[in-house]
């Protein structure tokens, strides 16, 4: 069992290296995409991953997707202070950038790695997205409905800002899952946040 795990780990690392080279081969670097890697890697997680004016999001906003993916991989590998959830979130965002660029196989690898132990409401959303990338509408609907019926935590679902509790809609990411369903025949780039197909009555699977 240990040998099998080691072999799988080695294969995964090798495969990521292969798909990264393949995805980057056709995308030239530009001076507009230059950045101070040491400075970016020294940013806090919130600045690096969540701030649109810094980190990978700033690079991606300038059209520097190759650089954004590269710096996320370097940050995820080198930032020893990352929590489990933060590590998984960055893997997810790497997958998203690959998906937005149409690199289906690469995206699926990172999406699968972004799953979180024991967090079904997140894993359902990941499975919806993977089903979309695999062009499996039946599985997408199944996981969408599983996500829709996940129970809300007893304490509620919210975050605190300036001492005030901000209630959030439950379940998270259901709106995205529904767009991927409605615009299933479109690319991920369109379906993710540009879907214009009107909302229909959801298909409930028993």
How would you describe this structure in keywords?
206 residues; mainly alpha; two-stranded antiparallel ribbon; 11 helices; 4% strand; globular; disordered N terminus; disordered C terminus
Describe this structure in words.
It is a single chain. This protein is mainly α and 206 residues long. 60% of the residues lie in helices and 4% in strands. The protein has eleven helices and two strands, in the order αααααααααββαα. It has helices spanning 2-24, 37-41, 45-50, 55-61, 65-78, 84-100, 104-113, 120-133, 137-148, 174-182, 188-193; strands at 158-161, 164-167. It has a two-stranded antiparallel ribbon with strand order 1-2. β1 (158-161) and β2 form a beta hairpin. The longest helix has 23 residues, at 2-24.
């Amino acid at each position: 069992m240990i040998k099998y795990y080691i072999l799988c780990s080695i294969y995964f690392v090798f495969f990521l290296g292969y798909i990264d080279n393949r995805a980057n081969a056709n995308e030239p670097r530009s001076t507009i995409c230059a950045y101070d890697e040491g400075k970016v890697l020294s940013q806090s997680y919130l600045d690096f991953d969540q701030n649109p004016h810094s980190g990978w999001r700033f690079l991606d906003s300038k059209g520097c997707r190759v650089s954004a993916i590269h710096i996320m991989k370097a940050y995820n590998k080198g930032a020893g202070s990352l929590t489990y959830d933060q590590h998984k979130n960055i893997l997810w965002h790497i997958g998203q950038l690959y998906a937005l660029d149409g690199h289906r196989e690469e995206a699926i690898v990172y999406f699968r790695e972004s799953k979180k132990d024991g967090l079904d409401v997140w894993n359902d959303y990941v499975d919806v997205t993977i089903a979309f990338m695999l062009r499996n509408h039946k599985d997408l609907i199944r996981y969408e409905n599983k996500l829709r019926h996940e129970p809300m935590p007893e304490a509620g679902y919210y975050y605190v800002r300036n001492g005030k509790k901000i209630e959030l809609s439950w379940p998270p990411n259901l709106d995205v899952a529904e767009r991927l369903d409605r615009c299933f025949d479109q690319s991920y780039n369109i379906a993710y946040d540009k879907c214009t197909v009107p909302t229909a009555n959801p298909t409930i699977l028993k």
